[in-house]
Amino acid sequence: MEAKFQELKNRLLEINDLNSAAALLTWDQTTYMPPGGAPARGRQIATLGKLAHEKFTDPTIGKLLDELTSYEKSLLYDSDEASFLRVTRRDYEKAVKVPAAFIAELFSHAAKTYDIWTKARPANDFTTVRPYLEKTLDLSRKYANFYPGYEHIADPLIDDSDEGMKASTVKKLFAQLREQLVPIVKAITSQPAADDSCLKKNYPEAQQWPFGVEVIKRFGYDFSRGRQDKTHHPYCIKFSLGDVRITTRFKENDLGEGLFSTLHESGHAMYEQGICMDLEGTPLARGTSSGVHESQSRSWENLVGRSRGFWEFFYPKLQQTFPQQLRSVSLDTFYRAINKVERSLIRTDADEVTYNLHVMMRFDFELQMLEGKLAIKDLPEAWRERFKADFGIAPPDDKDGCLQDVHWYGGVIGGVFQGYTLGNILSAQFFETAVKAHPEIKPQIKQGEFATLYRWLKENIYQHGRKYTATELVQKVTGGPMSIEPYIRYLKTKYGELYKL
Ligand code: ZN
Prior knowledge:
Blueprint: H1 2-31, H2 38-57, H3 59-67, H4 69-73, H5 80-95, H6 100-120, H7 126-144, H8 155-161, H9 167-189, H10 205-219, E1 228-230, E2 236-240, E3 243-248, H11 255-273, H12 290-304, H13 308-321, H14 323-326, H15 331-338, H16 355-371, H17 379-391, H18 418-437, H19 441-446, H20 451-460, H21 470-478, H22 485-498
Parallel strand pairs: 1-3
Antiparallel strand pairs: 2-3
Helix pairs in contact: 1-2, 1-3, 6-7, 9-16, 10-11, 11-12, 12-18, 16-18, 18-22
The chain binds zinc ion (ZN).
């Protein structure tokens, strides 16, 4: 048994190395690669991906898993070995259901569509991208149908990013959240908007960058096992547990952009850096779901980074960094500015309160498109109507309407948006549990101290990687199922102090 287990582990390690090499090529592509490298780079990444897929779907893997079934049953459920076998089996059973030729078609269609979209969005041209999106929907449906027996056609797609979740569970949670959220949004946006002009002065990048670095070092992001570079779209990427990188972008006329995206990505990265080293190189060595991952980025960005206590410590330091811009701006004014709530067109620029309405709308559209109830040709109009109903404003064009997010134009419709709102819900649920266990967390944040919070997250969430599914993890950590209540309590408390609710 030992020898077979070791053989499986070695095979998985090789696959992990191929995927990590592909990730490094991707990182380079978006940071330092000269434009001339693009055509070959796309091919190189695809070749590594293909090799990894072939190695993973090799029948030998299935045979080894079968032979190790009784060994797995003899182990404790949450031991490293049993978890490794359980998660590998789940991944394997999913992977072999999809033919390699279909994966290749999906990737090549995704690359073409993405390329068309990068030109269509600035040109406000939905017509050109429409046939591509129709094919994407067709492929997404075909993909789901490789997993017959689903309750809803979106379920297999949702399961890819939020394992174990279904359209029906997400729908139920979102309906509860919506009911509570809409009156809060209404109450806030009927009051005078916060003045955020203090964030829109000139803030040189040369000072913005080190300030953000100082903050995330204090959070616990380890620069000896990571680094930060610039890209168009900030992200976090891992090559091994000893090398988890983040990227950011700065706008010199908008202080919030670089700062909060830095805090956000550091949250993703600390999760990955915090995974137990014993899991290195195995399928367990990453965050367990898109919702739980997003809960970590949102915790550090919003629950910590947009809290009043945090700025009691950091605002004097920010004023020292930008004396001309902020000397005469009070902490109160600054705090209100970074927590401005408004009905706006763009999801990625949205505040904590209205953000979820953007996500829920996209999630509903995904279900309707997959169900065949919403045709791609009708998407622009459906977007305008729904947006008007939810936000009271209509996007003037498709550029800031249904063309704004890359997700659908990156190759798949379904399962790509729910993680953002699940993340918001979970961030509050985990944070509330942490503060209950360690009431000193909030006073420490006021001192620029994050060690207790970081340790709690590492101990309860980070270290496990994919050992537990999101549902198991929430139960284990909070003692109950996923719930919107802590998130609503958080919003009502925080925004109740800023606005009349
Ligand atoms: Zn994120």
